[in-house]
């Protein structure tokens, strides 16, 4: 029987985030009374795995190409899925989601190019700030589904602007570096 070593934990957390995302998407389709509380709990758990997988990989010196590539990809699946699920509730406009989607596809193409050259790109500080703003946006959106409060309307709108700004701000550095190296 194979024992899971601490060097495998970061990748297991990354894969777990993907599984949690699938469960949350399924929960949106249910008519359960408290589904948004469950979704919020799962979402925060998934967001925390993103912090811990990278932290553990650095702590145990076991960063891997798998982790670099799939951590980034599953972050995008988590965030874009949750944002998309907020659209029918008029929490996030479709146009804003499309702008997030375009940014993610362009930056993932750049990252994919460098990965194909054997030089995967790690997450940047500005990219981590972008992700934090997106997480806060989604949390506020889920809170709106649980509590129809006018402060939450203002908060989600403001965080959508902040998250979108940080998305393109961090994307600028990826594009700039790509153009310089090409």
Within CATH, the superfamily carries the name CDP-alcohol phosphotransferase transmembrane (TM) domain
Secondary-structure-based class equals: mainly alpha
The shape is: globular
Under CATH, the topology is which? Four Helix Bundle (Hemerythrin (Met), subunit A)
CATH architecture: Up-down Bundle
What percentage of amino acids are in beta strands? under 5%
CATH class: Mainly Alpha
Low-confidence stretches: none
Order of helices and strands: HHHHHH
Rounded average pLDDT: 91
Query: If helices are DSSP runs of H or I spanning 4 or more residues, what is the number of helices?
Result: 6
What is the CA-atom radius of gyration, in angstroms? 17 Å
Number of strands: 0
Can you walk through the features of this model?
The chain has 182 residues and is mainly α. The chain has a single domain, classed as Four Helix Bundle (Hemerythrin (Met), subunit A) (Up-down Bundle). It is 79% helix and 0% strand. It has six helices and no strands. The protein has helices spanning 9-28, 35-59, 65-86, 94-116, 125-146, 150-181. The N and C termini lie far apart (48 Å). The model has no long low-confidence stretch (mean pLDDT 91).
């Amino acid at each position: 029987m194979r024992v899971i070593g601490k060097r495998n934990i970061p990748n297991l957390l990354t894969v777990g985030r993907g599984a949690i995302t699938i469960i949350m998407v399924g929960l949106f389709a249910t008519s359960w009374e408290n589904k948004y509380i469950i979704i919020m709990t799962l979402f925060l758990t998934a967001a925390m795995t993103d912090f811990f997988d990278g932290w553990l990989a650095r702590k145990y010196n076991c960063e891997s190409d798998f982790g670099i590539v799939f951590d980034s990809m599953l972050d995008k699946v988590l965030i874009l899925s949750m944002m998309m699920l907020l659209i029918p509730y008029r929490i996030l406009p479709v146009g804003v989601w499309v702008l997030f989607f375009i940014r993610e596809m362009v930056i993932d193409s750049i990252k994919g190019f460098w990965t194909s050259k054997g030089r995967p790109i790690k997450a940047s500080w500005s990219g981590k700030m972008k992700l934090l703003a997106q997480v806060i946006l989604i949390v506020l959106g889920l809170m709106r589904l649980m509590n129809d409060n006018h402060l939450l309307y203002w908060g989600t709108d403001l965080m959508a602007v902040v998250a979108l700004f940080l998305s393109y701000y961090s994307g600028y550095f990826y594009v700039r570096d790509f153009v310089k190296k090409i």
